[in-house]
């Protein structure tokens, strides 16, 4: 039986459909204009078309929430080699979306907290950040504790439902800005999990796991959630003062590399030691903290995924066969068993070469600088449908999440220009290798783990 759209959902669907039609019409006219442009001027005309179309997309997305904004966030940072004009057109969605009014936010707080609202001594009216389904205010409890107060938009559930119902239209919007990007798998992965983000109690539980796991870490800070003040639509956590990720651009290369190592360690240590991923790796979720040594605070745990023992066994088998003790046949067989490749008629050597970019960073020992060109190359390889193997490569659910994290991480490492011996760091993290750490951060972390174990 077909589900009837609510008035808001019908309006939402009409809004996106109208935006897609308008942008398509404008883009068609621009393409015709380029076709009529003399040869020497075609490149400039094409660049102008890309920028103008990106501006149209940003304007259309500006009044939307949920899945739409998440896709805009990803498009703004995932390809570090994209033109600056294109990235900047959507970059404001990394840490901001149109906020709701102070009265509306207070109404949500009253409905959700009731008498518990009296525990707050002060709540700033202007939000410090506004994201896809909620906005964050700085507040002070009566005991003097400064907290981050995340308030969900009243219509978030309905709007996300509408977003999911017309996801193909959203894909169409983003394709005008990034025509070569195959976003269908990303949208499907987001659609299966974005509803989980609506329950802030779930997010608080996941964040509490991360906070406990990294309590006292010398370089990683996770704000602790305050469960007594958290509901399905209100999340209260410790407040963390820090600078936005973009501020890292002003640091020395060595400091930027240390930040890159912190990000790398957080992602893969969380995977291999906690079997847990924080699946939203955009720059708005990271703060650079003051201090004598670079530290990073990690925010927003709404989009997280845990992994089963079988899934982890597959990740380990691939790493072993590809990197630790290279074995082309074992690697190919693991790919097939995991469902990453459909069919048994593909040569082991062909599979080895096709999947090489995903392991290149950790395959060879020694220092390596992550560049925009390299990170962009992996992205383009991922979405290249012209490769003979493209039609045979499958992306099981667990790998959709992992690949999204990897692409986001590589883009951030490239933005930092981070240099490190990534193979040595990975072997320090992988529990099935567990080599002695060689970097100062690794040694600090080892000492921290030893102290926790006492």
Automatic annotation (TrEMBL):
One GO MF term attached to the UniProt entry: ATP binding
One Pfam family in the UniProt entry: ABC1
InterPro entries xref list: ABC1_dom, ADCK3_dom, Atypical_kinase_ADCK, Kinase-like_dom_sf
UniProt superkingdom: Bacteria
Domain ABC1 atypical kinase-like stretches: 93-333
First and last residue of the signal peptide: none
UniProtKB keywords: ATP-binding, Nucleotide-binding, Transferase
PANTHER family: COENZYME Q8, PTHR43851
Similarity field: Belongs to the protein kinase superfamily. ADCK protein kinase family.
Entry protein name: ABC-1 domain protein
């Amino acid at each position: 039986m077909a589900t009837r759209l609510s008035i808001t959902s019908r309006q939402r669907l009409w809004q996106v459909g109208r935006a897609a039609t308008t942008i398509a019409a404008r883009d068609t006219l621009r393409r015709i204009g380029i076709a009529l442009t003399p040869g020497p001027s075609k490149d400039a005309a094409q660049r102008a078309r890309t920028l103008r179309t990106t501006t149209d997309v940003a304007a259309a997305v500006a009044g939307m929430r949920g899945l739409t904004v998440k896709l805009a966030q990803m498009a703004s940072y995932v390809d570090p080699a994209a033109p600056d004009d294109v990235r900047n057109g959507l970059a404001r969605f990394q840490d901001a979306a149109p906020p709701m009014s102070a009265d509306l936010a207070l109404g949500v707080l009253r409905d959700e907290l009731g008498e518990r609202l009296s525990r707050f001594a002060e709540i700033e009216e202007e939000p410090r950040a506004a994201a896809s389904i909620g906005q964050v205010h700085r507040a002070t409890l009566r005991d003097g504790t400064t907290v981050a107060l995340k308030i969900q938009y009243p219509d978030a559930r309905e709007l996300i439902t509408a977003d999911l119902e017309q996801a193909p239209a959203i894909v169409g919007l983003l394709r005008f800005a990034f025509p070569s990007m195959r976003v269908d798998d990303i949208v499907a992965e987001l659609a299966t999990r974005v509803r989980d983000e609506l329950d802030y109690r779930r997010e608080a539980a996941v964040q509490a796991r991360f906070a406990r796991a990294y309590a006292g870490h010398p370089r990683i800070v996770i704000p602790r959630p305050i469960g007594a003040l958290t509901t399905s639509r209100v999340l209260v956590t410790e407040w963390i003062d820090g600078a936005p990720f973009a501020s890292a651009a002003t640091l020395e290369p060595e400091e930027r590399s240390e930040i890159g190592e912190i990000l790398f360690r957080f992602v893969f240590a969380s995977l291999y030691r906690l079997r847990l991923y924080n699946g939203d790796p955009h720059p708005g979720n990271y703060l650079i903290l003051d201090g004598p040594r670079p530290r990073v605070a990690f925010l927003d745990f709404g989009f997280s995924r845990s992994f089963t023992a079988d899934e982890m066994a597959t990740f380990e088998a691939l790493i072993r066969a590809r990197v630790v003790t290279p074995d082309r046949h074992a690697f190919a067989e693991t790919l097939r068993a995991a469902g990453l490749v459909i069919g048994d008629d593909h040569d082991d050597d062909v599979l080895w070469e096709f999947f090489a970019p995903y392991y290149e960073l950790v395959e060879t020992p020694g220092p390596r600088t992550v560049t925009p060109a390299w990170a962009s190359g992996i992205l383009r390889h991922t979405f290249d449908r012209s490769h003979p193997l493209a039609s045979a490569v499958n992306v099981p659910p667990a790998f959709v999440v992992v690949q999204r994290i990897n692409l986001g991480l590589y883009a951030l490492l490239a933005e930092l220009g981070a240099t490190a011996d990534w193979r040595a760091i990975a072997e320090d993290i992988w529990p099935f290798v567990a080599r002695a750490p060689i970097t100062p951060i690794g040694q600090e972390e080892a000492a921290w783990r030893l102290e926790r174990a006492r």
